[in-house]
Amino acid sequence: MEPFHQFIFRYLSCGECAKNFDKEAKKHKLLEVATAHDMVMWFWRVHNSVNARLSGARSDDPKFPKRQFPPSVVCGQCYDSNGSFDEKEIFKFMLAYYSDIRQDSVQAPPEYKMNVYKDGKLQAVGSRHLNPKFAVHADKVGKLEEVEERLRKELDANPQREWKDIEGYDNLASTGRSHFYLVWLTMIAFVIILAYCKYRRNRSKFWKTFYYHNDFKL
């Protein structure tokens, strides 16, 4: 688990957040996690530990208060007679809660728009459904799609983009490549001519050196 630890620690751009994660990792012994069961329980413990630390802080959202999960109204059997968590029941609850996703037959599941584009043109409009347990900001996704579509229309209507239709635009790329190759071929030809002239001037020395292995130099 050390690669996971180091990745999250270095990924977080917030220095304080990275330090807090490092403290939580050491406090809850991340490096001792060895099984899937351990990983589930480790995440649960860290989640509740962070919520307990941030509860009542200035950053606490009153609409979504930091509280221990799961609450007794959701999982009564997760608490023992003393009001403490029963970790065996917690593990069973976590598997059931995040594996058995059910939708309300009365209320429509949250969804967001999905536009399909090809070559800059709208081809189809569809919808995607979010997991109802993770649909807190479902309405914002649809608004984001609308903003992106509006910006795309504004860009398409901008006259500055008409430069693509200038006659001969399609040949600009090939013309640039031709100039590049021409420059390189000219340089290669110059080097070959220079080497040939050098050879013509010293060819007698060259052949003597090649055949007789004497000390003549070009």
TrEMBL record:
Residues spanning the membrane: 180-199
Every ERV/ALR sulfhydryl oxidase domain range: 1-68
Listed EC numbers: 1.8.3.2
InterPro entries noted in UniProt: ERV/ALR_sulphydryl_oxid_sf (IPR036774), ERV/ALR_sulphydryl_oxidase (IPR017905), Sulfhydryl_oxidase (IPR039798)
Reaction catalysis annotation: 2 R'C(R)SH + O2 = R'C(R)S-S(R)CR' + H2O2
Gene Ontology biological process: protein folding
Required cofactor names: FAD
GO molecular function annotations of the record: flavin-dependent sulfhydryl oxidase activity; protein disulfide isomerase activity
One Pfam assignment: Evr1_Alr
Name of this protein: Sulfhydryl oxidase
Protein species of origin: Heligmosomoides polygyrus
